[in-house]
Amino acid sequence: MNHADKTRSSLTDTQTPHSLTVEYAGRSDYFAMTHEHFHPHYEVYILLSGERHYFIRDQIYRVQQGDIVFIAKNELHRTLPAELPEHERIVMYFNDHFAENHFAVHSAWILSLFQSKQPVFHLSAREQSHLNPLIQKLLRELTVQAPGYELCMQCIVTELLITCARLHREQAQLPATIGTEAHQHMSEVARYIKSHYQQEISLPLLAEQFHLSPSYLSRIFKKTTGFSITEYLNTIRIQEAQRLLRESELKIIDIANIVGFGNFSHFGKMFKHLSQVSPREYRDSAKHLGIQISK
Asked: Do 61 and 197 reside in the same domain of the chain?
């Protein structure tokens, strides 16, 4: 049974938000993300209460009450339940158009929040006292949705990000990774897959590489990252295929081979499953929108 209280304000579609999308959710069940492992917009995740585990890039992090997570465009990520499932969070999405329109000449400075090696921003009690009034005001606007709330939320989110950028510059980066041996071991497996995705990779090969039994590796990797081995490998490959489709004029069949798909038909099916469009449609759409990975 799913127990969730969710409030959402979407000024545009979350798949390609040209403005701002804000969501609130409170959950009491063991919820884990099952879709949208990566997307072409920035994401800010604020944990209001409870605790979560967050798999980002190839590392597992512990996210606690008051923490803020900054997810860059096209960054692989997934949230997972911690020991207790109850939690509340706010998630904000925006893209380069919103940044250009609202941050202007300060865009590079504010967007540097999403380029940090440490995506989880821990706040001291003093820092939380600066941000909490803004977060509560944002939550009120999102819940009540009085006339003009969209404009008000844009202003609050901009001020929130400016405050975070100021605090981030002053704050020493503290480790947020989960320190259990199993989590660290699975992070090593994820990094290996990310570095060798162009090669032939199988569960038996990985198990031999890391001196683990295939069944144990399969079970623990899924439990700690939220991905099966095959799902993670295919996602990494499709991410790279998307980048090559945006940035190069390589033939689609050559891109499939470069990223590790020996079977072109399987590549096409997997690409459409994860991207919702075919490789050709994705390339055409990227050209039409002028999307560049470097932005």
From this structure: no
